[in-house]
Specification:
Radius of gyration: 22 Å
CATH class: Alpha Beta
Number of domains: 1
Shape: globular
Structural class: alpha/beta
Order of helices and strands: HEHEEHEEHEHHHEHEHEEHHHEE
Distance between the termini: 46 Å
CATH superfamily: P-loop containing nucleotide triphosphate hydrolases
CATH topology: Rossmann fold
Largest sheet: 8 strands, mixed
Number of strands: 12
Bound molecules: iron/sulfur cluster
Length: about 350
Amino acid sequence: MSDLDRRPAPTSGQTEPLLAVNGLSKRYVLNAGLWQRLTRKPELVLHAVDNVSLRIERGENFGLVGESGSGKTTLGRCLLRLVEPSAGQVIYKGKDIVGLPPSEMLAVRRKMQMIFQDPYSSLNPRMTVGQTLGEVLTVHHLCPPSQVKDRIQDLLSLVGLPGDATQRYPRHFSGGQRQRIGIARALAMDPEFIVADEPVSAVDVSIQAQVLNLLLELKAKLGLTLLFIAHDLSVVQYISTRVGVMYLGKIVEIAPRKTLFAYPRHPYTQGLLLAAPQLDPFHQTTRVAIEGEPPSPLRPPPGCRFHTRCYLANDRCHQEEPPLREIGGGHWVACHYHERSEWPPPIPGNAQ
Ligand code: SF4
């Protein structure tokens, strides 16, 4: 392990996190197989998540943002081992769950659930809502058979669906209602930790606030801890207490929500905020926030991965990868610029 791998995971200050991630990586070899071995061609490795360390405290709403392809969803899936990490640790309540045998992992996974982006494709169209929820309760022996119907009614009421929804199929519901079914299915396991992967990006804008408010309500009522993955900054700002920003498989900034949105320190975070639509006509910016396309995760640039698009990049950024360092108040940034005398960096477009 390098020194970077041993660096303590960024924390909000408490000592016993519900979940700690240390040096987590997920790589996919795209051309693996007999043909690649016979032809001895170099492996094409996609670095989806690269050496990420992170802590999520009990009861926290941790928001994870970044562009498409930044590795947010892969990281969320690695935490639940829906995707097996290539390296690193996922420590849940003090125990590393990477490498746990399936029998032990089953008990852990009951407490760690996922809400998927597309509620329609994550529900079986041939099963009624009652059958979907009943299957979860029965297969996992979560309540005696005589109590399954009552438990289903409780779950439906918890997510604001009518009791007669049990007889209907997913196609009979709107997008928002389907997402409520997905949430009820996750809650059926009585989880402690939920990864919500873009839970409102597939639902109508007018319904998004209802689903977000439902998640906040359930979190308070059931004492849940949330990892909320989204590309929409306004959604993350609404729901999160702490926010992490991902770029090309790396976490580049972590801060309490108010700090991040008021004082973004990483040039990528600044660019993301500038790219977000402004409702106030007197605070519009004309500058393009982040120029260019993200590099391919098959060939991530050396040094700082953001240097190909960064307006502050210098020679050092091209060669040396900046570690994630705390700059105070639970604010962590991976940028060499903070060592320069001009720190903090100007926010482009603010002067306009
Ligand atoms: Fe930009 Fe350099 Fe900071 Fe990377 S390390 S974000 S290239 S200033």
